[in-house]
Amino acid sequence: MSSEKVSYDEASNPRGVTPPQTSSMAESGADLAHEKKIIRKVDIRLLPILVAVYSVAVVDRTNMGSAAIAGMMADLKLKIGSRYSIALLVFFIPYFIFELPSNLVLRRVGPAIWLSSIAFSWGVVTIGMGFIKDWRILVFCRVLLGFFESRFLPGCVYLISSWYVRYEVQQRLAGFYLLTSIINGFSSILAYGLMQMNGIQGLAGWRWILIIEGVITVAIALLAYIFVVDFPDKLFQRRKPFLTASEVEIIKSRINRDRDDSQADPITWGIVAHHLSDWKLWVYALIFMSAAVPPYALAYFLPIILKGMGYSTGMSQILSALPYIPAVVVGFTLAWWADKSRLRAPFIALGALLVIAGLSMTAFSSHHSVRYFGVFVCLAGAQNNVPAVLAYQANNIRMNSKRSVGTALQIGFGAIGGVFASTVFREKDAPGYRNGLWATIGTQFLALLLLACMTVYFKKKNRQHKEGTLDKLLENHSEFTYTI
């Protein structure tokens, strides 16, 4: 390693990417304590509002399970054929299609306007769902919900990964996702409370679940317009910044030392096509698809599975929330450990094994207590893997344009995971849904296989980089190496 690379702080310069010297602050070396203070300012301003908006997005997307056992299934005749599964599935079709175009617009319009406007839109749709009388209108509303929500998560992941160096990003993505998850978990208790409004203004309890949760979404969307921040290189262009010019330069110099892409490169449809030709993006997307299946399956079907065990509607709602508490603790602990060790694949593999073990207990035990404990084990692995897989890709790509394309593709495949979860849990398999549980286990074996292949490939390329025998640069940079 050259003496120039040794001079950079190791925490800010993992893997030794040598930057262009962008500022006098970078040349002299920023004080580490001051740097950490700036990062905390970014954390406080960037993450809470995104967590708040994504939380209501997930609640609005997955409240079908709570509404179903609160009377929607009977009122809209969703038990006929596969109507309930169809209503779940159609959400993911526009959710997949419109991921990529949204990220291309995000930088031009600005995160505050773009993210808040789409949150407002899906909030209005959720309110409207509380007044529908026909299951076909429900299907149409779910399509609209998928259209609007498709633009939010890839934008959030793209924005978050643009502010941090590679070995800080999993903790931030985990905090973003896991706080969202625990809020979503306790949304079933909120739904139980809202069910008690049954009969007020002549509306059923399930309708109040949708209406009140939609109103909350609209209110948070208005706050998002005020508080969502821009990209580091755009911070002074569109609204009043929350950092000083020198603090922004420190952020940008850290990113350049880490991966040399603080400035956005141009993005055109030709560049999009070029990035999509990288086979690794499709592997990351397939791994994320596998990681997305268990959380969707549990969100949509856990209350129904628990009710099938003999629990009452209210107890099913409460028991659906409890597994999220230890899952968040496990997920964030593993995220901290992953960033500390600068490893990704071993922690994703651990998460997949936990899902396999947990679902096996839920599928095959004859004791309800063991089956329920399996949900805890499964959810701990599932909640770890979603941010871990996002970080796995974020650590192994460069350039803003590729980050935009890769994030949209990856989360789009998460929608395919949602389609999978919606279809393999069939009404005729209720209340145990053993075939759906088996299919979900199969996706974890797929993730383990893909991880093994990527690990072998990354180790080979890193060894060639060290020996100077590469046929072409990794991620178009002479100092870049892959994160295992």
From TrEMBL:
Main localization, broad class: membrane
Keyword Zinc-finger carried by entry: no
Pfam family, one: MFS_1
Keywords: Membrane, Transmembrane, Transmembrane helix, Transport
Name this protein carries in UniProt: Major facilitator superfamily domain-containing protein
Stretches for region Disordered: 1-26
InterPro entries reported in the protein's UniProt record: MFS, MFS_dom, MFS_trans_sf
Gene Ontology CC annotation, any one: membrane
Superkingdom per UniProt: Eukaryota
Transmembrane regions listed in the UniProt entry: 46-64, 84-100, 112-131, 137-161, 173-194, 206-229, 281-306, 318-338, 345-364, 370-392, 404-425, 437-458
Membrane topology of this protein: Multi-pass membrane protein
Signal peptide feature range: none
Molecular function terms from GO: transmembrane transporter activity
Domain Major facilitator superfamily (MFS) profile: 41-464
Subcellular localization(s) per the UniProt record: Membrane
